[in-house]
Amino acid sequence: MIHYLDQSLTWSENGVEGEDPEETRDRDAWDEEMAARGILAGGGVLRGPSEAKTLKVRNGEVLLTDGPFAETKEQIAGYTVLECADMDEAIEIAARHPTGRFGTFELRPYSWI
Fold it and tell me: Which terminus in the chain has less CB density within 10 A, N or C?
């Protein structure tokens, strides 16, 4: 089995962070089904971009800025680690995730460190 990192990218048109209760129920049901099938290996939901910090170190100095690094409407909202046979199965599984109805997913093979 191969692990795949499934990054959830979403955005807010009005700048309000939050989720509809129906979306939460749908996502929770997807999580439960994938856990029962042995596909869900981990994951998490990130807090909003307004709480983010971007950090880099240059010439030994820590440079810290508020917010996410990317200048884009889409932001990483969360991630799921899927345990699948191959990329085709990971695509099939991610396509069933409720967030796909309004967000975007990026799938990448994932290695534990």
Answer: C
Phi and psi angles of residue 11, each rounded to the nearest 5 degrees, phi first: -150, 165
CA dihedral 11, 17, 22, 25 (to 10 degrees): 100
In Å, the largest CA–CA distance within the chain is 48
Mean pLDDT of the chain: 82
Residues 6+ apart with CB under 8 A from 39: 82, 83, 84, 93
Q: Which residues contact 106 (CB under 8 A, 6 or more apart)?
A: 6, 7, 9
Q: Which residue has the tokens 């991630």?
A: 79
With contact defined as beta carbons under 8 Å apart, do 12 and 90 qualify?
Answer: no
- Please tell me the distance from the alpha carbon of residue 14 to that of residue 22, in angstroms, as a whole number: 19
User: Region 25-42: what's the mean pLDDT?
Assistant: 93
| Segment 89-104 mean pLDDT | 88
* DSSP helix/strand/coil, 83: strand
